[in-house]
Write a structure and sequence with these properties.
Blueprint lengths: L2 H4 L4 H4 L11 H20 L17 H8 L9 E4 L5 H8 L4 E4 L12 E7 L8 H14 E8 L12 E3 L2 E3 L5 E2 L4 H12 L4 E4 L2 E5 L2 H12 L13 H5 L1 H14 L11 H8 L2 H12 L1 H22 L12 H11 L2 H14 L3 H10 L4 E3 L2 E3 L2 H6 L5 H8 L12
Parallel strand pairs: 1-2, 1-3, 3-4
Antiparallel strand pairs: 4-9, 5-6, 6-7, 8-9, 10-11
Length: about 400
């Protein structure tokens, strides 16, 4: 156990050796005097870091765990492990929601087994480790035990924070004897990607998602810009539709979600639809006659726009090959664009139009959110964040900075 990580003061700090007792022991003074001086010098150069004091008690879930729940990454179907869990509030509160998990902490839960899990949380741990080598080793160890996703959070530098502290290493020391390294948002992303050699996705200020699998990362990025399906209404009642209502309604739900004809892997009732109505195309033609063609055209157009926005944002990172996407998304590209290359070309066109002032002005004028004043669109941030009907230009800009709609950080 190192001096910094023990959290307990050494004998010369705790009082085992007291300089004021030397006057009553003159024979020992010659030996104790230089020793005490050496210890004092060592203490000034290598202060005791009380890491355990940074583990605060909470009555609510931590911000990174809340974020993962809101993004659908933490469910009852995945396992969870909190690496550096402190007092373990996240584990207990998730357990009350039916999400089982475990955790380990070097001070409060040192005897718990460190085990792999689908989702691993490394919550506000990196910023309290004063040794850069140990900091990197801790991050890589958390990455090793994460099977699908690693959630990493750290304190981000804000104006005024850390100014009154004492500089130490690449961070600061507080009056309580704790160490803090305040990252910049971009610095934290670069640090994670350098250590783990993969892309880190920003979730909010000071919180990043690091996916183990490329297909899971692309699916998450696609869902981030995808709008919900439109609400369908049956306008005309036909006898044949009524005869097959029990299979056509699930079929319609799948069509509304995908915006295209499903693959047998995406809709298990495909064989029954084909046996009753001859083919999926005939079943869809019947549905269009009953519910109206305009509704389905709008659904297809919305889904196409969502994919174009997703691919435009992917240009800022590095678009993977077609094989790097889930099977559902590969079928989307073929159904809506013909080929993946054509889809990327449309996305590039949209991306370049984002620098066209006339195109931005036109998009603002069409947006149902906000108010146009003196030929400029002024948007309410709260309404803009909650709307999924904004033009593609505006949704592309909003999606590139998702943390602005998350509120202030805390842990």
């Amino acid at each position: 156990m190192t001096l910094a990580s023990s959290g307990r003061p050494p004998p010369w700090v705790a009082g085992t050796i007291k300089p004021n007792c030397l006057a009553s022991r003159p024979q020992q003074a010659l030996w104790y005097g230089p020793l005490v001086g050496y210890f004092v010098a060592m203490l000034r150069e290598y202060p005791v870091i009380a890491r355990f004091k940074t583990a605060i008690r909470r009555r609510d879930l931590s911000r990174p765990v809340k974020c993962a729940l809101a993004d659908g990454l933490l469910t009852q179907q995945v396992s969870f492990f909190d690496y550096g869990c402190g007092h373990g509030e996240d584990i207990e509160l998730l357990g009350s929601q039916g999400i089982s998990g475990g955790g380990w902490d070097p001070v409060f839960r040192p005897n718990q087994l460190v085990s792999g899990a689908d989702v691993v949380n490394l919550g506000y741990v990196l910023n309290v480790i004063e040794d850069p080598a140990e900091r990197g080793a801790t991050l890589r160890r958390a990455w090793e035990i994460a099977r699908r996703l690693l959630i990493v959070s750290a304190l981000v530098r804000v104006p005024g924070r850390g100014n009154a502290y004492t500089e130490f290493g690449d961070g600061v020391l507080s009056s309580r004897g704790t160490f803090q390294k305040f990252f910049d948002q971009a610095e934290l992303k670069e640090y994670l990607e350098t250590e783990l050699e993969t892309e880190a996705i920003p979730a909010m200020v000071g919180v990043y998602y690091v996916f183990k699998d490329e297909t899971n990362r692309q699916q998450f990025l696609s869902n981030r810009v995808r709008r919900g399906p439109a609400v369908l209404r049956q306008r005309v009642s036909e006898q044949r539709f009524e005869e097959h209502r029990e299979v056509l309604h699930p079929f319609m739900d799948t069509l509304a979600l995908l915006g295209r004809l499903p693959d047998p892997e995406e809709f298990p009732q495909c064989p029954e639809i084909i046996s009753r109505l001859g083919s999926l195309k005939r079943a869809f033609a019947l549905v269009r006659r009953v519910t109206g063609e305009d509704t389905w055209d709008a659904i297809r157009r919305r889904r196409t726009e969502d994919l174009v926005v997703f691919l435009a944002l992917a240009r800022f990172r590095k678009r993977p090959k077609l094989s790097g996407y889930p099977g559902t998304m590969q079928r989307d590209f073929r159904a809506f664009f013909g080929t993946y290359a054509k889809a990327c070309k449309q996305a590039d066109t949209l991306l370049f139009r984002a620098g066209d002032a006339a195109a931005i002005d036109e998009a603002c004028q069409r947006s149902p959110v906000g108010e146009a004043v003196a030929e400029r669109a002024l948007h309410s941030p709260k309404r803009l964040r909650s709307s999924r009907t904004s033009p593609a230009h505006l949704r592309r800009l909003r999606s590139e900075f998702p943390w602005r709609s998350r509120g202030r950080q805390h842990h």
